[in-house]
Amino acid sequence: MSKKASLENKFERSLFASRWLMAPMYLGLTVALAMLMVIFVKELAYYLPKTLTLTADQGILAVLTLIDLSLAANLLLIVLFSGYENFVSKFDFDTGADRPGWMGKVDFAGLKLKLIASIVAISGIHLLKVFMSLGKPNTGTDISVETMQWMVIIHLTFVVSGVLLALMDWLAPKTK
Fold first, then answer.
1. What Pfam families does the record point to (predicted)?
2. Is the pLDDT score of 154 beyond 90?
3. pLDDT of residue 139 exceeding 60
């Protein structure tokens, strides 16, 4: 083997090994998931004693808050598992029937679509919460028309971005 080939081989091996620099980031995302769980429990503990005194609108807003946190946690899990398996290493243990069906099957294109779909859902829920609280006293949402317009524009930007990403992923294999 020539000296150049040996040097190239070592360089490529070190590049390949550098993927492990992502592992601490995925560990950090695990900590972020625990943080979301604590916030979820805190919100649940806040609303639970008020259950019998909440109006229907307040109850729906409380549930939407919990759904919003749950979607964010689901998104975090998808990024955590898919990112680790796509960019660092496959999981080497047998999880049996408990293994989620999508795990190990979500490639980078699928991850992008799941990510944008989750962002659209989270944005939509947040927008719905704001719409529902408009004109209601003691909701803590005194939002100007301009702010509301920007929220709708940003949400629609997420929607259009998702559609364009899906279209690009659909068109990519057809261009060969």
1. UPF0114
2. yes
3. no
Range of the domain at 35: 3-175
Cα separation, 157 vs 139, whole angstroms: 27
The structural domain count of the chain equals: 1
Residue 88 Cα to chain centre, angstroms:
19
The pTM of this model reads 0.71
The tokens 């992502």 sit on which residue?
22
- Residue 142 is predicted with a pLDDT of 72
d(CA 26, CA 22): 7
Nearest to 59 by CA among 51, 70, 67: 51
Residue type for position 176: K
| CA atoms 101, 162, 65, 24: torsion sign | positive
Rounded (10°) angle between helices 56-87 and 23-47: 170
